[in-house]
Amino acid sequence: MSRPPFCALPPGTRAGRLKTRRGEFAMLDAVPAGREEAPAGTVLLVPGFTGSKEDFIALLAPLTAAGYRAVAVDGRGQYESAVTETGAVARSAYGLGALAEDVLAQAEALGQEPVHLVGHSLGGLIARGAVLRAVAAGRAQPFASLTLVASGPGRVASWQRWKVRALSACLPLLGPRRVWRLVTRRPEPGEVGDFMRRRWLANAPEQLLVTGRTLRHEPDRVARLAAAGLPVHVVSGERDGAWPVPLLDRMSDRLRAHRTVIRGAGHSPNAERPLATAAALVAFWAGVPAVPPSLAGSGAERLSR
């Protein structure tokens, strides 16, 4: 799981609720200060497995300093957007198709202009799903670009699949509190450590089980994304245990995407090297056309899980 370097809200950031046609989602909304003109763009930040909006907290100040409005959200069943569903309802509510539809609703709620979509790890798979879902439905594309941060072409590497499978087996038997004690034998002291524990206990267990299955079984949809024609940026640290960096390099080539490797970072460059990551994002967005190409009718398959 990503570890935010701090928890205090940066200047110009408010914690609130994003109201959408799919319900309300907890968010951190960071707006550039002292600008008479409109923001340079709006960024929607989607967290990964066991994560939350706070995984992007260290990106907010540098992004607003560059003139962007940045909105980080907790997904359905995550931290402060947590809801409890059971059985078949949970499988439907937390499947990739449902979570991708949530992201589409969030983008729509942010305004009329296309937003720059950023997804970390599992959040990258969900963000990709939102792009493909819009294409499959023939909708106007609400995204100006897509950035995949430490997120690969399909399911995670075999070692990570084993870890997620073990979590999925233990969680129903032991419960979140006992699993947390097993995973964190030496709890981190201080504000960040308290936050990490509080976030873990707030996550809906059913969401972790269903999204864990997504991480273990998601197919390679790179060809569909390449056909969509949206500008794509592939970002990673120089090492990654979830998807090997050479695999991310090959995915970037297949997408003809912009590629950035953040030196000194692992699976969470957004939290580990936020200034370098923010600089890479801003540099990419500067080269994105103001009006994205029409993406309707490119033949991407509908996501139904």
UniProtKB/TrEMBL annotation:
A biological process from GO: glycerolipid catabolic process
InterPro entries (alphabetical): AB_hydrolase, AB_hydrolase_1, AB_hydrolase_fold
Domain AB hydrolase-1, residue spans: 43-280
UniProt keywords, alphabetically: Hydrolase
Pfam family, one: Abhydrolase_6
Signal peptide: none
Domain of life according to the entry: Bacteria
UniProt GO molecular function: triacylglycerol lipase activity
Protein known as: Alpha/beta fold hydrolase
Native organism: Streptomyces hoynatensis
